Amino acid sequence: MAKKKELIEWLMGLENDVILDKIDELKKQNTYDFGNNFQTGLKLEEFRSEIKKRIQNYSSNK
Q1: What is the mean pLDDT of residues 12-33?
Q2: For the chain, domain boundaries
Q3: pTM value?
């Protein structure tokens, strides 16, 4: 939490437009587009298959 507060204080005093633009680009890269990801997500059978693989992989790693 202290790190977040320190970053907020640093951002509030920042006046360099180049750095602010780069931070804005980073923010845009890290946003989650639920609607788009939902449409391109796994179908039910693909989801089940992936879960089975993960469970088998987890069981074999023990």
Answers
A1: 84
A2: 2-61
A3: 0.41
